[in-house]
What we know:
Blueprint: E1 7-8, H1 10-13, E2 22-25, H2 33-44, E3 51-54, E4 73-77, H3 85-90, E5 94-95, H4 103-108, E6 116-121, E7 129-131, H5 139-145, E8 148-153, E9 161-162, E10 165-167, E11 173-176, H6 191-203, E12 209-212, H7 216-222, E13 232-234, E14 237-238, H8 243-248, E15 263-265, E16 267-268, H9 272-278, E17 284-286, H10 289-292, H11 295-298, E18 304-308, E19 312-314, E20 319-320, E21 323-324, E22 327-328, H12 335-343, E23 349-353, E24 365-366, E25 384-387, E26 390-393, H13 399-408, H14 412-426, H15 429-437
Helix pairs in contact: 6-7, 13-14
Amino acid sequence: xxxxxxxxxxxxxxxxxxxxxxxxxxxxxxxxQCLIQALCERGRRGELQNVYIHHLHTxxxxxxxxxxxxxxxxxxxxxxxxxxxxxVQKGLADYIPVFLGEIxxxxxxxxxxxxxxMIQVCPPDKFGYVSLGSSVDATLAAIESSEFTIxxxxxxxxxxxxxxxxxxxxxxxxxxxxCPIETVEFSQPTQVEKTIGRYCAELxxxxxxxxxxxxxxxxxxxxxxxxxxxxxxxxxxxxDGILDLVKRGVINGSNKVLDxxxxxxxxxxxxxKIYKFIDNNPEVLLKDVEYTNDPFxxxxxxxxxxxxxxxxxxxxxxxxxxxxxxxxxxxxxGQIDFVYGSSRSKGGExxxxxxxxxxxxxxxIVPSLDLGSGAVTTRNHIHWLITEYGAVNLYGRSLQERAKxxxxxxxxxxxxxxxxxxxxxxxxxxxxxxxHSIP
Length: 439
């Protein structure tokens, strides 16, 4: 039997939340802002204490991390975005280190409780189903695990396929809101990023299946793939950069083994153009993050090619991608899910692509990671490293060989320092080994 659809106000909806509850908020651009505001109003009135807030990366306001809510809301996110970064670094909010592909498991196996899931969906269809729109990620697992699910019904939420469709019988409380969903505009690639894009494109074969992270480097890479053929997408996220390649027929998924012909992701983030593209588009499947980021699923795609970035890399090949020293900047995310999965794929490639320096000229290729930094991609997992100075494959290379190869793609003004650091670490044998074992 279909459940009756009777919307209530946001203020009434959040009354089900009690002190001590764990609340999941749907992610990225699909954040239910009216519920957040109503929940914070309850906090200001002194009605709640020790409510735990969980989510992945979110766009838009995140007032629950403000100092006024200390002792009222405890923010334990699975990924840290710009809207909560300062609070996490100050200790006003917190972060749970976890592979992106395992977040659903935290809910399903009750490592973390979910008393209330606050989500945003498109209007119900004639069959009594709604869609989670642009972001499935761990929200499906949160709904399955929660005592109450509150859904904001919003006409701006795109209707998507895959794991995103749920019957209204799974929802306990409905709220209506017509605020536009959050959009994100990415900056145009710099010349450095365009150069990195060209190096990456040279490693991507026709028929490859792609995963890329967020930002201008992925867009620079995609712009270099217009002459490629039969590319596929299996990723954790995608944005506007794929639209031109889909239109040209370059991305068609014809070489995929799983989900042939489909673009598979767990969330989408970008402009209104990308949300319009995914709306009612059966070519796009938004899946549970437990599926998209499972290395053993990823590895089944032939020529799986992952491209991720880093904040720092040391001379042994350890990549820090989540912190600035001890200060959390983002999170583990799905980098290692895809690095490992693509490296196990037949004909696959795992690529770390990063500029050799920051925009301020600070060196990102260092003798050792800064004290307190997290090694997200370990020296055991890394394969290709690409900077604007070239591409080197570190897989199967010794520590001394790696040091020489990594130094070769560092900014020229830092190469002498890095060579000296390697010499001090390994001794005089370092130059002999490198001159005889590296072509």
